[in-house]
Design a protein that fits this description.
CATH class: Alpha Beta
CATH architecture: Alpha-Beta Complex
Number of strands: 5
CATH topology: Ribosomal Protein L22, Chain A
Distance between the termini: 39 Å
CATH superfamily: Ribosomal protein L22/L17
Oligomer: single chain
Radius of gyration: 19 Å
Largest sheet: 3 strands, antiparallel
Helix content: 25-40%
Strand content: 25-35%
Length: 132
C-alpha cells in the first residue's frame, strides 16, 4: 500500500471511531417510500428522531425506528467509557439505495401481460456524538 493511501485509510479509521453504523439489507419497502421517511431524520438529534418515527403513520417508520435503535446500541458498545446522557447523538447520515427487484407478470386482457416490479432497498444509518 502506498503512503498516501495508508495515511488516508488511517485518517478514515480515526474519523470512524466516534461514529456508529447500522445497516438494513433487502427491506421489502420501495426505496422511494423509504426515502420519504429517511429525509425527516437526516441531521436530527436521536431522541427527536425516535419521536418522529413513533408518530409517523408510514410503514417505513417502523423498520427505520428499529434500525436507529440498533445504531444507538452500536454506539453504546463502541463507546463504553462515554455515557449516552453526556453526549448528544445525531443522525449524521442516512442513505437509502435500491436493492434487487422481484419481477412478476400480471395477466392482462386479450392475452397480454403487465410487468410488476416489487422493489426493495438497503438502508445505512450513521450516528455521531456531539459533546455538550
Amino acid at each position: 500500500m502506498g503512503a498516501r493511501k495508508r495515511l488516508r485509510a488511517e485518517k478514515r479509521k480515526e474519523d470512524n471511531k466516534s461514529v456508529a453504523f447500522a445497516a438494513l439489507k433487502n427491506s421489502s419497502i420501495a426505496p422511494r417510500k423509504m426515502r420519504l421517511v429517511a429525509d425527516l431524520l437526516r441531521g436530527v438529534e436521536v431522541n427527536k428522531a425516535l419521536g418522529i418515527l413513533q408518530h409517523n403513520p408510514k410503514h417505513a417508520s417502523k423498520s427505520l425506528e428499529k434500525l436507529l435503535r440498533s445504531a444507538i446500541a452500536n454506539w453504546e458498545l463502541k463507546n463504553e467509557d462515554k455515557s449516552l446522557e453526556d453526549e448528544q447523538l445525531i443522525v449524521k447520515t442516512i442513505e437509502v439505495s435500491p436493492a434487487t427487484m422481484l419481477k412478476r407478470i400480471q395477466p392482462a386482457p386479450q392475452g397480454r401481460a403487465h410487468r410488476i416490479r416489487k422493489r426493495s432497498n438497503h438502508v445505512k444509518i450513521v450516528v455521531d456524538g456531539i459533546k455538550n
